[in-house]
Every structure is written in structure tokens, then in C-alpha cells.
Specification:
By secondary structure, the chain is α/β, with parallel strands linked by helices. The structure holds 2-acetamido-2-deoxy-beta-D-glucopyranose (NAG) (6 copies). The site of one 2-acetamido-2-deoxy-beta-D-glucopyranose has 2 residues, from loops. This is F-box domain-containing protein.
Length: about 350
């Protein structure tokens, strides 16, 4: 729109508007309140980015989608039912991703200091009260990359998270953490803890120091799934409760039976790379039967102990369990707390896997 559209006489404007595409109309209506008022006066009453059909949105560039989305989300009090999700990655590159039924846009966060390194189209985005400089580049195969610049990488990230959290109560669908620079992790997790942001899934990858890992455990809890792929030293110890519904630990020799018993909010716990002893497994089983892990539905622990050994002395029977239908062969069943029972696969060798069912 290279000319001052609002200076055109009303009748001419009306004719002009009839020639604009629906996307152009949205762009005009988002220019200003006055522009939108003119559109309405000309009979274009329902012009909104949120009313665009998918076929139109799909044809926009990522930056256009992001810009129109941000402008429209500022204007509207509510977002449409597009199942918005916000992802956040603090790793070798730092980016956030906004996904929904109509688009998925990644925004890489860089420092202002580095801005001169990037050649591309310079733009800016208004997010909350901040005006964020942006450079849009296109790679060899035409892949668009949006880079947003802030005082620090984490500042830029926090501006986006903060805006969506405060304005639309977004939770973070997934937080990925893998970073050599401890300050980044510290800033992000402190921010999340202090604003009590809801994080649904947390994934920790190397390289992450043990110190940073503890910091993460203390500051953010995943409501859905907590996954760790970290190789931690043999003497690594922690006494924090992991509250996620689902816990997945690889290389988990450090995840002791005590840690397992502290995770009493969890429904599913998988630990590989562990080597639980018969004594530990039996202690865990005892606690489970006493009802110390009331929500547990499935547990898989790496061990060299056969399930027969671990179950020695337990009241148990072999049989069929309706709910374990998918399992071939026979099932060993033990009585649990309340009405529940636990099922083991008789031929499990290197893991201790129990499924728990309520009768
Ligand atoms: C506005 O457009 C949307 C989507 O195209 C439609 O569902 C809605 O009914 C329209 N509202 C009015 C007032 O025309
Ligand atoms: C989307 O772009 C394609 C290719 O440029 C074009 O053929 C199609 O008509 C466009 N669709 C819409 C809804 O504008
Ligand atoms: C915000 O979202 C959380 C879940 O992510 C929910 O528990 C809370 O009730 C929501 N708050 C408001 C004001 O909608
Ligand atoms: C969160 O992390 C900070 C370090 O950044 C630490 O000082 C603080 O104790 C942690 N919060 C909690 C609740 O442990
Ligand atoms: C965040 O910090 C508070 C203390 O301010 C603490 O009680 C809470 O457990 C922390 N959140 C976590 C670990 O999710
Ligand atoms: C988990 O353990 C804590 C501390 O012992 C206890 O307060 C809490 O009620 C337990 N949660 C469940 C679901 O049993």
C-alpha cells in the first residue's frame, strides 16, 4: 500500500476497496483504528486476520503471518480456537516457536550486537510495549528465517513469552534446555519460576552442567513430561521432587529408588541406564503396595534382576489380565494398594516393567 489510502475521496475509496484481496483488506484494517473505521464505513465489516481461510493464510510468508497475527492479537481480546502452542528452546540456537492449526513460525533470537552480521530485510515487530528489530532472510532453497534482536538472547525470548503469557495466559508447551552458557539458563528459569509460568514439557539435553540441571529442577516443573538425556556423574545427587505426570530418564543411574519414591505425583516413570538391585526393587514394591505412589500407572526400570527375583515373597499369581491384552505370553500379577494390581511380563529380562490397573 504505497499511497495514503485514507486521503482518497470516500466514493473512490469504496471502489478501490472492492478491488483489494481479502488479505490486503486485513492489512489495511490493521494499519490503524481509523483505517479500520473506514473499512467498516465502506461495508467491510468483518475484516480480521482471524477470519482468513486457511488457503489464504497458507500463502503468506512466515513474517507476514507473524506480523498480522501479532497485530490482530493486539487488537482482539481473545484468540480464536486455533490451538495455539508456544515452544521455547534454550540451546545452541535460541528460538521460540508459535504453532497453531494454521501456521508454525520459528523466531530465532539474537543479540543486538550481532545484528550487523545478518543481511536481509529489516523489519520490526511490536510485542507488548517493545519494538523488536527483526531481520528476515531467505536461504538457498527459499526457506525463510526470522531473527529477532534484543539486548541479550534471553531478553528477547522473555519478551515473547511474557507477552503471550500476560495477554493470553499461554503456557509453554515445551521447554528445551541444552546450553553451555549458564547465564542463559539461569535467566530463563528464574523468569519462569518468578512468574509461575506453566511449562507442560521439559527436555534437558547435553551439554548441561550438573549445577544447571539442579537449577532447572528447582525452578521449573513440567506438568506433563519431564525428560532428561543427560549423562551425569556417578556421585550426582539431588533431592528435588519431579512432579511431571510422565518422567523419562535416560542414563539414569543417578535416579535412585529414593528419587523414584519422591516422584509420587507421576503416572509413568521410565528409567534407562540404571541398575537397581533386588533389594531396591523390593523396597520400591513395598512402598507402592503401601500406597506411596498412588498415581503410578506404569514403571519401567533398567535392572539385571529378573522379575521373579524381585517379586520373591510377594503374593502373586500367573494369569491373564484383560487390560494387558497387548502383551504376549503370560502375565504375573501382584496385588497392590486399594483395588489396584500390578502386572509383570514373565519373560522380561533386562528391565523391570510393571503396569498398574485399578480393578
Ligand atoms: C465473520 O467471519 C467469520 C469467518 O469467516 C464468520 O464465521 C462469522 O460468522 C462472520 N461474522 C459476521 C458478523 O459476519
Ligand atoms: C496461493 O498461491 C498459489 C501460487 O502462488 C496460487 O495459485 C493460489 O491461487 C493462491 N491461493 C490463494 C487463496 O490466494
Ligand atoms: C491460565 O492457564 C492455566 C493453565 O495453563 C490455568 O490453570 C489457569 O486457570 C488459566 N488462567 C486463566 C485466568 O484463565
Ligand atoms: C532458581 O534458580 C536460582 C538461580 O538462578 C536459585 O538461586 C534459586 O534458588 C532457584 N529457585 C529455587 C526455588 O530453588
Ligand atoms: C519456584 O519457586 C517457588 C518459590 O518461589 C517454589 O516454591 C517452587 O517450587 C518453584 N517451582 C518449581 C520448582 O516448579
Ligand atoms: C507426595 O509426597 C508428599 C510428601 O511426602 C505428600 O505431601 C503428598 O501428599 C504426596 N502426594 C501424593 C499424591 O501422594
Amino acid at each position: 500500500m504505497g499511497f495514503p489510502i485514507l486521503k482518497i475521496p470516500f466514493v473512490a475509496l469504496k471502489v478501490l476497496l472492492d478491488h483489494l484481496t481479502i488479505v490486503e483488506l486485513v492489512t489495511v484494517s490493521l494499519l490503524s483504528k481509523r483505517a479500520d473505521w473506514f473499512l467498516k464505513a465502506c461495508g467491510k465489516k468483518n475484516v480480521s486476520f482471524f477470519n482468513l481461510p486457511n488457503s489464504e493464510i497458507r500463502n503468506l510468508s512466515d513474517f507476514e503471518k507473524l506480523e498480522l497475527f501479532l497485530l490482530e492479537s493486539r487488537r482482539q481480546r481473545q484468540l480464536p480456537e486455533w490451538r495455539f502452542k508456544l515452544f521455547c528452546s534454550v540451546s545452541s540456537d535460541r528460538h521460540i516457536k508459535i504453532g497453531c492449526t494454521h501456521f508454525c513460525i520459528e523466531i530465532y533470537i539474537e543479540t543486538l550486537y550481532d545484528m550487523r552480521k545478518f543481511a536481509g530485510i529489516r523489519k520490526s515487530l511490536k510485542i507488548g510495549d517493545s519494538l523488536i528489530p527483526v531481520v528476515v532472510t531467505r536461504g538457498y532453497v527459499g526457506v525463510e528465517r526470522i531473527r529477532a534482536f534484543a539486548k541479550s538472547n534471553t531478553d528477547g525470548m522473555i519478551v515473547f513469552i511474557d507477552y503471550f503469557k500476560k495477554r493470553f495466559n499461554f503456557s509453554i508447551e515445551k521447554l528445551e534446555l541444552a546450553e553451555r552458557n549458564a547465564e542463559s539458563i539461569k535467566t530463563v528459569v528464574n523468569y519462569l519460576n518468578s512468574t509461575q509460568a506453566v511449562v507442560r514439557n521439559v527436555e534437558c539435553y547435553p551439554p548441561l552442567s550438573e549445577k544447571d540441571f539442579i537449577l532447572i529442577l528447582r525452578n521449573v516443573s513440567a506438568t506433563e513430561k519431564f525428560s532428561s538425556y543427560l549423562k551425569l556423574s556417578w556421585n550426582f545427587k539431588f533431592k528435588e521432587t519431579i512432579r511431571a505426570k510422565n518422567i523419562e530418564i535416560r542414563l539414569g543411574h543417578w535416579f535412585t529408588i529414593e528419587n523414584l519414591l519422591m516422584s509420587n505425583e507421576s503416572e509413568v516413570i521410565h528409567v534407562s541406564g540404571s541398575d537397581y538391585t533386588k533389594k531396591e526393587l523390593r523396597w520400591f514394591l513395598k512402598k507402592w503396595r503401601e500406597g506411596k505412589l498412588p498415581k503410578l500407572k506404569e514403571v519401567i526400570l533398567a535392572t539385571k534382576v529378573s522379575c521373579w527375583d524381585a517379586l520373591e515373597g510377594c503374593e502373586r499369581w500367573e494369569g491373564a489380565c484383560r487390560k494387558c491384552d497387548g502383551w504376549p505370553g503370560s502375565v504375573v500379577i501382584i496385588k497392590g494398594h486399594g483395588d489396584s494390581h500390578g502386572c509383570f511380563h514373565a519373560s522380561d529380562r533386562n528391565s523391570y516393567r510393571m503396569l498398574i490397573h485399578d480393578n
